[in-house]
Design brief:
The chain is an alpha+beta fold. The protein is 14% helix and 27% strand.
């Protein structure tokens, strides 16, 4: 059963989609790769990254044509091996799983400088999509990312009035292993280390994140639910009991 959404709890969840500790690194992220030459050539294939975790593996397909800076930033961390040994430290049942910054000891790693927000790219936070986590400032994302477990249109860009209306930039989606994401989402959670709650038990370790090349036949990017876009995969018929939020 999907947990009941309370307005105050929902605001609290949005407020906690932040980078809890992000020490800026000395390096600067390289500029995104130049756009493919124009012409009648087919659209470029989308690179894919395999995330191996202590709960199983899943594959993320990236959308550099929609979120070039965010994808370039994510791939920079992947190629550096930054994510190896980090954890999914936040699991909100029926909502999302978040990780990519903290070690097994729940200590934050040193990151590259933050990047500009690309939430206004036409992509929606549908089930299975992957988005950049950030703080109240839209241009504060570094290494953290989250996977939407359900359709979360309230996390989409709606305007530049504030950091919250700006939304969260979708830059990829899970194309294989969504059952693993659901498995992580159904783990029991509680307080641990510096966090007052939502830490999965046991901790879910990212053993490796590896670029596996480009998809021969890129899948269609998710778009606004208004268009009737089908989510990455149908949500489970019945959720396992979890913490109420």
């Amino acid at each position: 059963m999907t947990p009941i959404r309370h307005p105050l709890r929902q605001l609290a969840i949005l407020a906690t989609l932040v980078l809890c500790a992000t020490a800026a690194g000395a390096q600067t992220a390289p500029p995104p790769a130049s756009a493919a030459s124009a012409g009648n050539a087919a659209a470029p294939a989308h690179p894919q990254v395999e995330i191996k975790t202590s709960q199983g593996d899943f594959v993320i397909e990236l959308f550099p044509d929609k979120a070039p800076k965010t994808v370039a930033n994510f791939l920079q961390y992947v190629k550096q091996g930054f994510y190896d040994g980090t954890v999914f430290h936040r699991v909100i049942p029926g909502y999302l799983i978040q990780g990519g910054l903290y070690t097994r000891e729940l200590k934050p790693k040193r990151t590259l400088p933050p990047i500009p927000d690309e939430a206004n790219n036409g992509l929606s936070n549908l089930r299975g999509t992957v988005a950049a986590a950030r703080g109240p400032d839209p241009d504060s994302a570094t290494a953290q990312f989250f996977v939407n477990v359900v359709d979360n249109p309230r996390l989409d860009y709606v305007g530049n009035q504030s950091g919250w209306t700006w939304g969260f930039a979708v830059f990829g989606k899970v194309v294989k292993g969504m059952d693993v994401v659901d498995k992580i989402d159904n783990l029991p959670t509680g307080p641990q280390g510096p966090f007052i709650g939502d830490v999965p038990r046991p901790l879910v370790v990212i053993e490796s994140a590896k670029l596996i090349g480009e998809a021969a036949h890129p899948t269609a990017e998710p778009v606004s639910p208004i268009t009737g876009q089908v989510p990455a995969s149908a949500p489970p018929a019945k959720k396992k009991p979890g913490a109420q939020h």
